[in-house]
Design a protein that fits this description.
With 99 residues, the protein is of the alpha+beta class. The chain has a single domain, classed as Winged helix-like DNA-binding domain superfamily/Winged helix DNA-binding domain (Arc Repressor Mutant, subunit A, Orthogonal Bundle), CATH 1.10.10. The protein is built from three helices and seven strands. The chain has helices at 28-39, 47-55, 64-77; strands at residues 2-5, 8-11, 16-19, 22-24, 45-46, 87-90, 94-97. Strands 1-2-3-4 form a four-stranded antiparallel beta sheet, with helices on one face. Helix 1 (28-39) crosses helix 2 (47-55). It is globular and about 35 Å long. The two termini are 18 Å apart. The mean pLDDT is 92.
Length: 99
């Protein structure tokens, strides 16, 4: 299954993100996080919800793990990671992917 957004194509079958047909390197959980958010564009998720959906209920880590993966994703998909337009923080709630 392929999901197109902007100059990117996320190929879930090949587990690959491409920008303008060039492969981008994503860590496995960052890929899964992006795939999850792309299946739910515009929906706001708390860190806890993302941990549950992407990492699974038995994940023993902290919610900061989500922040780190969001940071990595922004470096790959945002024109200006310091001022994100696609993967945005909703203050006091969590994150949302705008398409």
């Amino acid at each position: 299954m392929r999901i197109r957004f902007g100059a990117f194509v996320l190929d879930r079958s090949a587990r690959q993100l491409r920008r303008n047909d060039e492969p981008r390197g994503l860590k496995p959980k960052a890929f899964e996080l992006l795939a999850f958010l792309l299946r739910h564009p515009g929906q706001v998720f708390s860190r806890e919800q993302l941990l549950s959906e992407v990492w699974g209920y038995d994940f023993a880590g902290e919610t900061r793990t989500v922040d780190v993966h969001v940071h990595w994703l922004r470096r790959e998909i945002e024109p200006d990671p310091g001022s994100p337009a696609l993967l945005q923080t909703v203050r006091g709630v969590g994150y949302v992917l705008r398409r």
